Amino acid sequence: MKEVTIEQFLYQLGSKDPVPGGGGAAALGNAIGAALGQMVTNLTTGKKKFAQYESELQQSLHMLEKLKKVSLEFVEKDAKAFIPVAKAYSLPKNTEEEINYRNQFMEEALLGATIVPIEMMEVVLQVIIILERLAKIGSRLALSDIGVGIQFCRSALLSSAMNVFINTKMMSNKEKAKELEEKANTLIGEGTEKCDEIFAYVLSEISN
Length: 208
Fold this sequence. Notes:
There is one protein chain. This protein has helices spanning about 5-15, 20-45, 55-90, 95-135, 145-170, 175-205. The protein is mainly alpha-helical. α2 (about 20-45) runs antiparallel to α3, α3 (about 55-90) packs antiparallel against α4 and α4 packs antiparallel against α5 (about 145-170).
Protein backbone atom coordinates (compact mmCIF):
# COMPACT_ATOMS: atom_id res chain seq x y z
CA MET A 1 0.00 0.00 0.00
CA LYS A 2 2.81 2.40 0.85
CA GLU A 3 4.46 1.80 -2.52
CA VAL A 4 1.43 2.46 -4.73
CA THR A 5 -0.22 5.69 -5.80
CA ILE A 6 -3.92 6.37 -5.29
CA GLU A 7 -4.45 5.78 -9.01
CA GLN A 8 -2.67 2.41 -8.85
CA PHE A 9 -4.66 1.35 -5.81
CA LEU A 10 -7.94 2.22 -7.50
CA TYR A 11 -6.86 0.33 -10.61
CA GLN A 12 -6.12 -2.76 -8.53
CA LEU A 13 -9.37 -2.31 -6.62
CA GLY A 14 -11.32 -2.20 -9.88
CA SER A 15 -9.61 -5.22 -11.41
CA LYS A 16 -10.85 -8.82 -11.28
CA ASP A 17 -8.26 -9.67 -8.64
CA PRO A 18 -9.93 -10.48 -5.29
CA VAL A 19 -7.55 -8.24 -3.37
CA PRO A 20 -7.59 -5.43 -2.57
CA GLY A 21 -11.31 -5.59 -1.98
CA GLY A 22 -13.93 -4.13 0.31
CA GLY A 23 -11.82 -4.68 3.41
CA GLY A 24 -8.88 -2.77 1.98
CA ALA A 25 -11.17 0.03 0.81
CA ALA A 26 -12.69 0.26 4.30
CA ALA A 27 -9.25 0.49 5.89
CA LEU A 28 -8.23 3.25 3.49
CA GLY A 29 -11.45 5.10 4.28
CA ASN A 30 -10.67 5.05 7.98
CA ALA A 31 -7.14 6.30 7.29
CA ILE A 32 -8.69 9.23 5.41
CA GLY A 33 -10.98 9.94 8.36
CA ALA A 34 -7.97 9.97 10.69
CA ALA A 35 -6.02 12.24 8.32
CA LEU A 36 -8.87 14.74 8.25
CA GLY A 37 -8.82 14.73 12.04
CA GLN A 38 -5.11 15.48 11.87
CA MET A 39 -5.74 18.39 9.54
CA VAL A 40 -8.27 19.91 11.92
CA THR A 41 -5.88 19.40 14.83
CA ASN A 42 -2.99 21.03 12.97
CA LEU A 43 -5.21 24.00 12.11
CA THR A 44 -6.13 24.36 15.79
CA THR A 45 -2.81 23.89 17.59
CA GLY A 46 -0.84 26.98 18.47
CA LYS A 47 -3.90 29.21 18.35
CA LYS A 48 -4.38 31.43 21.40
CA LYS A 49 -8.14 30.85 21.35
CA PHE A 50 -7.59 27.11 21.87
CA ALA A 51 -4.54 27.31 24.16
CA GLN A 52 -6.31 25.52 27.00
CA TYR A 53 -6.61 22.42 24.79
CA GLU A 54 -3.03 22.44 23.45
CA SER A 55 -1.86 19.38 25.39
CA GLU A 56 -4.97 17.41 24.44
CA LEU A 57 -4.64 18.45 20.80
CA GLN A 58 -1.02 17.29 20.66
CA GLN A 59 -2.05 13.94 22.13
CA SER A 60 -4.87 13.64 19.57
CA LEU A 61 -2.43 14.42 16.77
CA HIS A 62 -0.10 11.66 17.95
CA MET A 63 -2.91 9.13 18.28
CA LEU A 64 -4.41 9.96 14.89
CA GLU A 65 -1.03 9.48 13.22
CA LYS A 66 -0.72 6.09 14.88
CA LEU A 67 -4.26 5.05 13.94
CA LYS A 68 -3.79 6.26 10.36
CA LYS A 69 -0.72 4.06 9.99
CA VAL A 70 -2.47 1.09 11.58
CA SER A 71 -5.39 1.54 9.18
CA LEU A 72 -3.07 1.50 6.18
CA GLU A 73 -1.46 -1.67 7.53
CA PHE A 74 -4.92 -3.23 7.56
CA VAL A 75 -5.11 -2.84 3.78
CA GLU A 76 -2.33 -5.45 3.56
CA LYS A 77 -3.60 -7.39 6.55
CA ASP A 78 -7.02 -7.80 4.98
CA ALA A 79 -5.52 -9.02 1.71
CA LYS A 80 -3.34 -11.57 3.51
CA ALA A 81 -6.30 -12.81 5.56
CA PHE A 82 -8.23 -13.61 2.37
CA ILE A 83 -5.46 -15.69 0.79
CA PRO A 84 -6.13 -18.83 2.92
CA VAL A 85 -9.86 -18.58 2.17
CA ALA A 86 -9.16 -18.49 -1.57
CA LYS A 87 -6.77 -21.41 -1.18
CA ALA A 88 -9.38 -23.44 0.68
CA TYR A 89 -11.73 -23.31 -2.30
CA SER A 90 -9.07 -24.89 -4.51
CA LEU A 91 -8.31 -27.81 -2.19
CA PRO A 92 -9.33 -31.24 -3.48
CA LYS A 93 -12.44 -32.94 -2.10
CA ASN A 94 -12.41 -36.35 -3.75
CA THR A 95 -12.00 -38.48 -0.64
CA GLU A 96 -13.38 -38.27 2.89
CA GLU A 97 -9.92 -37.45 4.16
CA GLU A 98 -9.55 -34.62 1.66
CA ILE A 99 -13.00 -33.29 2.51
CA ASN A 100 -12.25 -33.30 6.25
CA TYR A 101 -8.94 -31.52 5.70
CA ARG A 102 -10.57 -28.99 3.38
CA ASN A 103 -13.35 -28.27 5.88
CA GLN A 104 -10.89 -27.81 8.73
CA PHE A 105 -8.65 -25.59 6.62
CA MET A 106 -11.64 -23.52 5.50
CA GLU A 107 -12.89 -23.09 9.07
CA GLU A 108 -9.53 -21.77 10.22
CA ALA A 109 -9.26 -19.51 7.19
CA LEU A 110 -12.74 -18.07 7.76
CA LEU A 111 -11.94 -17.38 11.41
CA GLY A 112 -8.80 -15.48 10.44
CA ALA A 113 -10.65 -13.54 7.76
CA THR A 114 -13.33 -12.58 10.31
CA ILE A 115 -11.05 -11.47 13.11
CA VAL A 116 -9.25 -8.97 10.88
CA PRO A 117 -12.32 -6.82 10.06
CA ILE A 118 -13.42 -6.92 13.70
CA GLU A 119 -10.02 -5.59 14.70
CA MET A 120 -10.43 -2.96 11.99
CA MET A 121 -13.78 -1.94 13.48
CA GLU A 122 -12.09 -1.44 16.84
CA VAL A 123 -9.54 0.86 15.21
CA VAL A 124 -12.33 2.79 13.48
CA LEU A 125 -14.08 3.34 16.81
CA GLN A 126 -10.91 4.83 18.26
CA VAL A 127 -10.77 7.36 15.43
CA ILE A 128 -14.46 8.17 15.88
CA ILE A 129 -13.94 8.91 19.58
CA ILE A 130 -11.11 11.33 18.80
CA LEU A 131 -13.13 13.08 16.07
CA GLU A 132 -16.02 13.37 18.51
CA ARG A 133 -13.82 15.39 20.85
CA LEU A 134 -12.26 17.45 18.05
CA ALA A 135 -15.73 18.49 16.96
CA LYS A 136 -15.98 20.33 20.29
CA ILE A 137 -12.43 21.68 20.75
CA GLY A 138 -11.19 22.04 17.17
CA SER A 139 -11.16 25.11 14.95
CA ARG A 140 -14.66 26.14 13.94
CA LEU A 141 -13.33 26.99 10.49
CA ALA A 142 -12.54 23.30 9.87
CA LEU A 143 -15.61 21.84 11.50
CA SER A 144 -17.01 20.61 8.19
CA ASP A 145 -13.88 18.48 7.77
CA ILE A 146 -14.78 16.66 10.98
CA GLY A 147 -18.15 15.95 9.40
CA VAL A 148 -16.49 14.57 6.29
CA GLY A 149 -14.04 12.51 8.34
CA ILE A 150 -16.78 11.02 10.46
CA GLN A 151 -18.64 9.87 7.36
CA PHE A 152 -15.53 8.09 6.12
CA CYS A 153 -15.25 6.40 9.50
CA ARG A 154 -18.91 5.43 9.51
CA SER A 155 -18.54 3.86 6.09
CA ALA A 156 -15.36 2.06 7.17
CA LEU A 157 -17.13 0.68 10.24
CA LEU A 158 -20.14 -0.70 8.37
CA SER A 159 -18.05 -1.93 5.46
CA SER A 160 -15.79 -3.87 7.82
CA ALA A 161 -18.86 -5.34 9.48
CA MET A 162 -20.07 -6.76 6.18
CA ASN A 163 -16.77 -8.60 5.85
CA VAL A 164 -17.45 -10.11 9.26
CA PHE A 165 -20.93 -11.35 8.42
CA ILE A 166 -20.08 -12.81 5.02
CA ASN A 167 -17.46 -15.01 6.69
CA THR A 168 -19.39 -16.01 9.82
CA LYS A 169 -22.27 -17.14 7.61
CA MET A 170 -20.01 -19.86 6.18
CA MET A 171 -18.45 -20.96 9.47
CA SER A 172 -19.34 -24.42 10.80
CA ASN A 173 -18.72 -23.41 14.41
CA LYS A 174 -21.98 -21.53 14.89
CA GLU A 175 -21.23 -20.71 18.51
CA LYS A 176 -18.02 -18.94 17.55
CA ALA A 177 -19.75 -17.30 14.61
CA LYS A 178 -22.45 -15.94 16.90
CA GLU A 179 -19.83 -14.60 19.31
CA LEU A 180 -18.07 -12.74 16.50
CA GLU A 181 -21.35 -11.41 15.10
CA GLU A 182 -22.38 -10.10 18.52
CA LYS A 183 -19.03 -8.32 18.82
CA ALA A 184 -19.50 -6.75 15.40
CA ASN A 185 -23.06 -5.69 16.20
CA THR A 186 -21.93 -4.06 19.44
CA LEU A 187 -19.29 -2.07 17.56
CA ILE A 188 -21.84 -1.11 14.89
CA GLY A 189 -24.27 0.13 17.51
CA GLU A 190 -21.74 2.16 19.46
CA GLY A 191 -19.95 3.52 16.39
CA THR A 192 -22.93 4.52 14.25
CA GLU A 193 -24.64 6.20 17.19
CA LYS A 194 -21.59 8.35 17.79
CA CYS A 195 -21.15 9.08 14.07
CA ASP A 196 -24.75 10.17 13.67
CA GLU A 197 -24.57 12.39 16.74
CA ILE A 198 -21.33 13.99 15.57
CA PHE A 199 -22.63 14.55 12.05
CA ALA A 200 -25.86 16.10 13.38
CA TYR A 201 -23.84 18.39 15.66
CA VAL A 202 -21.51 19.48 12.85
CA LEU A 203 -24.40 20.06 10.46
CA SER A 204 -26.21 22.15 13.05
CA GLU A 205 -23.11 24.23 13.78
CA ILE A 206 -22.17 24.97 10.18
CA SER A 207 -25.70 25.67 8.95
CA ASN A 208 -26.75 28.14 11.64
